[in-house]
Amino acid sequence: MNGIRERIQQFLTTEEGKFITIGIIVTVFSQIVLFVLVEYFGYDKSITNKQTQFIALEVSFVLNRYITWAAKRNSFVWDWCLFHLVRVFLVLFNIKVFDVLVQINVPYMLINFGLIGVEAAGNYLISKYIVYRKKPK
What we know:
By secondary structure, this protein is mainly alpha-helical. Helices cover 81% and strands 0% of the residues. The chain has 5 helices and no strands. The protein has helices spanning 2-11, 15-39, 45-68, 76-103, 108-131. The chain starts with a helix and ends in a 6-residue tail after the last helix.
C-alpha cells in the first residue's frame, strides 16, 4: 500500500499529474455550477454551458500556467494570447457539438462529460507542445 501512495505522490509532482489534478478540480466545480444554474435557476443550457466553459478555461489557464508549466512560462500576455489563439478551434468545435446534441435531446450533462475528454486532451497537447514547449537554447 505504501508503494501505491508513493507512486501517486510522485505522479502528482509531474506535469501530467498537476495538469490532471487541476483539470479534475476545475471540471467538478464547473459542472456543479452548470447543473445548479440549469436545474435550480432555470438558466438556458446552451448559454450557461458557454459561460461555464469560458470561466473554466480561464481558471484552468491561470492555475496551469503558475503550477503545471511554471518553469516554462513566457510573459503572461504572450502565453494567454498563444493559448487562446490555438484553442479557439477546439472551443468552437465543443460548442457546436454541444448545441447540436442538446437540440436532439441528448442529456446536457452527458454531452458535457463526453466533451470533457476532448477538451482535456486538446488543452494538454496545446499547452505542452505549443504554448509551453521548451525553448531552444
